[in-house]
Amino acid sequence: MIHTRDDDGVRVVTLSRPDARNALTLDGLDALATAVEASPESVVLVRGAGEAFCAGADLATVAEVATDADRARAFIDRGQETMTRIEQAAPVVVAGIDGPARGGGVELALACDVRVATPDATLAEPGVTFGLFGAWGGTVRLPEAVGTTHANDLSLSGRVVDADEARSMGLVSRVVADPRTVADELAANDSGALRALGRLGSHRGSTADRERAEREAFVSQLRAHADALAEHRNR
Fold first, then answer.
1. Strand blocks (E) in the chain
2. What domain of life does the native source organism fall in (predicted)?
3. What does each of the 235 residues of the chain score in pLDDT, given as a tens digit?
4. φ, ψ for residue 115 (rounded to 5)?
5. Which CATH architecture has domain 2-191+205-233?
6. What is the CA radius of gyration of the chain?
């Protein structure tokens, strides 16, 4: 589900499950992180195939682990590890959000160094509407990106914001016709400086304690809402 192409200084990493709105499976998480880390280019652009950027975690996988706390913890650990690997990867990573980003898709964008959106982009953390919340570092990175006030609004309401509102709150830095133009702009700079700045920007101290608390809270909610989640999946 992960396609890569190295093109004129930019590695383009495409989430390619358009029929599933590019939802991430366990294998997809590992492949995504590896594709970013292994880039020979100093800039990586993460995009989604089809009409969506990323719908987040694959609901079939989530439903499978919902009643087993150990498997649920392992699933959340995998997602958190993937986002941390992307955040700490040597290349500068650009999230090119062209279409809907939901839940884990927003968390993927938050793990990137730069987030840009097209006018077709929409973003939301809708987990609260069916008893869950962002647990791939979402409760950690979202307030850092947009501040507590906006983070609470987005997380507690589950509402959808368009590209312009996302830019106004700092969730994305620009609204552009094509995210590739931003990746090319960055790639035109010195590769050594880019990698150094990327590493410095992602060094925010340990988030392990906050992520452990996030994971445990998520597992508890996941087990409590397993039946509702299965029903939501089958709609």
1. 2-7, 10-15, 43-48, 92-97, 100-102, 114-117, 122-124, 161-162, 174-175
2. Archaea
3. 899 999 999 999 999 999 999 999 999 999 999 999 999 999 999 999 999 999 999 988 888 988 999 999 999 999 999 999 999 999 999 999 999 999 999 999 999 999 999 999 999 999 888 888 888 998 999 999 999 999 999 999 999 999 999 999 999 999 999 999 999 999 999 888 888 777 666 655 566 777 887 788 788 878 887 887 777 666 5
4. -120, 120
5. Alpha-Beta Complex (3.90)
6. 17
